[in-house]
Amino acid sequence: MTFQIKQEIASCGGKLMKLSHPSKKTGTEMEVNVYLPKQYFHKQDQSIPVLYYLSGLTCSPQNASEKAFWQPQADKYGFALVFPDTSPRGEGVPDDPEESWDFGISASFYVDATQEPYKKNYQMFSYIHDELPRELSQFFENKGNSKLDFVENVAITGHSMGGFGALSAFLKLYPERKYKSCSAFAPITFPSKVQWGQKAFGGYLGQEEEKWKPYDPGHLLKMTTNIGSDKILIHQGTGDPFYKNQLKPELLLEASKGTSWDGKINLNLVEGFDHSYYFVSTFVPEHAEFHAKNLGLI
Ligand SMILES: N[C@@H](CCC(=O)N[C@@H](CSC=O)C(=O)NCC(=O)O)C(=O)O
């Protein structure tokens, strides 16, 4: 299995690679964008770490590649970026029976579905955190002057549904500390408690709430122990139309009380910002610095 290079675009000091590959996990062709920072093009002594960015509902790998302005930050610190897709797509992939944008295609919630008809293709957790990093490592091995580390020295972030995906994966895989750091922009923080999450978890995982807990940051905080000084960085705009009914970061803080994550969630409520990429791009430099520190770049 390998990647097809759909497009290579010079961007900032590096290059954005638009790739696609057949995924065993989803049974579909998956698109993914990878930004190679300027450091990649000059021989490095150490492997270049990778930041994974998970996008929100309705997105493809293009939204953040075009509008989040991560690329100058990747060049500044020397990390690569991976922008995966938000769901499987294509012929035969089941979508939302209600034809809404909050479930189905481009709304996978990054879980491994257990329910019909979704379980065949919606294996996004395994795809993103296992298959994709392995495949990217193989593809980039022995290419270019520098090594890229897609597996070990990695961090994760995301926006909205993708913010949830980042928190969920960080905490779910925390015992092995797969991701060195996690941040999120306007994430869905406690999906079991809000309509978007209940619909998605119900559809992909079934109606039994117990089955939702292993993906829900609000529960995962209680199921995994912070081993030291790890912090989670979150920004949330107060002018975001989804803030009070779907995102609810205060619920996550409440859930962290009395756990090893108490005081470790750095929630920044930012006055007036909405849910758009104007908001995301404003705070990308702060998140980039946070991850660069945790990836040992500064
Ligand atoms: N189409 C919807 C709006 C959908 C939306 O706001 N999507 C966000 C993520 S929401 C949570 O996951 C997004 O990132 N959109 C892409 C973009 O480029 O802004 C509506 O009609 O309200």
Automatic annotation (TrEMBL):
<feature type="active site" description="Charge relay system">
    <location>
        <position position="240"/>
    </location>
</feature>
<dbReference type="Pfam" id="PF00756">
    <property type="entry name" value="Esterase"/>
</dbReference>
<dbReference type="InterPro" id="IPR029058">
    <property type="entry name" value="AB_hydrolase_fold"/>
</dbReference>
<dbReference type="InterPro" id="IPR014186">
    <property type="entry name" value="S-formylglutathione_hydrol"/>
</dbReference>
<comment type="function">
    <text>Serine hydrolase involved in the detoxification of formaldehyde.</text>
</comment>
<dbReference type="GO" id="GO:0046294">
    <property type="term" value="P:formaldehyde catabolic process"/>
</dbReference>
<dbReference type="GO" id="GO:0018738">
    <property type="term" value="F:S-formylglutathione hydrolase activity"/>
</dbReference>
<feature type="active site" description="Charge relay system">
    <location>
        <position position="160"/>
    </location>
</feature>
<comment type="similarity">
    <text>Belongs to the esterase D family.</text>
</comment>
<dbReference type="InterPro" id="IPR000801">
    <property type="entry name" value="Esterase-like"/>
</dbReference>
<keyword id="KW-0719">Serine esterase</keyword>
<protein>
    <recommendedName>
        <fullName>S-formylglutathione hydrolase</fullName>
        <ecNumber>3.1.2.12</ecNumber>
    </recommendedName>
</protein>
<keyword id="KW-0963">Cytoplasm</keyword>
<feature type="active site" description="Charge relay system">
    <location>
        <position position="275"/>
    </location>
</feature>
<dbReference type="GO" id="GO:0005829">
    <property type="term" value="C:cytosol"/>
</dbReference>
<dbReference type="GO" id="GO:0052689">
    <property type="term" value="F:carboxylic ester hydrolase activity"/>
</dbReference>
<keyword id="KW-0378">Hydrolase</keyword>
